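In the previous chapter we treated chains in isolation. Here, by contrast, the input contains two separate entities that must be folded as one system, with a combined length of 227 residues.
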Amino acid sequence: GAGVSQSPSNKVTEKGKDVELRCDPISGHTALYWYRQSLGQGLEFLIYFQGNSAPDKSGLPSDRFSAERTGGSVSTLTIQRTQQEDSAVYLCASSSSTFNSPLHFGNGTRLTVT
Amino acid sequence: GENVEQHPSTLSVQEGDSAVIKCTYSDSASNYFPWYKQELGKRPQLIIDIRSNVGEKKDQRIAVTLNKTAKHFSLHITETQPEDSAVYFCAAYSGAGSYQLTFGKGTKLSVIP
């Protein structure tokens, strides 16, 4: 079946602009995660959504970052007033409602801030 | 929250040899430990996972062991092949009822033909 879909695959933006990254999880998956991966680095947790519960935003690095998930499906990660240090690959993942279920990752959005 | 330490950061082995990657975690309530493989420019993909009710799990050339008392778990790859070359990440859930998955910093494995 269809996996996790992210768009755009690449995004180049100027410093100070806002960007929106989109994630479409696997159908039926209630948990959705955003991670950030800088070049050659590990996976930095940003935020996750689980069903109708309040999201865990503990990983968001600043108030310029926000995310929403509409209708329990598609999610959008928004970065306002982008900075060069925001350049990274933003990975979305989803998992089923079962506790301790594997995460399935999308191909990511490569964000470059010039 | 959970803290996951992973070692080594880089590992080179000859084709056919074994590779071992080790991780430690801090939260004694964590009970699910997946391993992901990420090839260059690709997304991370689950290769094996283990839950705390077992001490070892095998899948062909890959095995994972878990020591809950010591709070560490390891990935073992036997008979390594060039296509095993990738970055491997361990991870742990942040405890009972939590959906936050914390990753180690990764191990870059190079298999030399």
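Residues 21 and 75 of chain B are 5 Å apart (CA to CA). The two ends of chain B are 41 Å apart (CA to CA). Compare these points with the single-chain example from earlier in the chapter.
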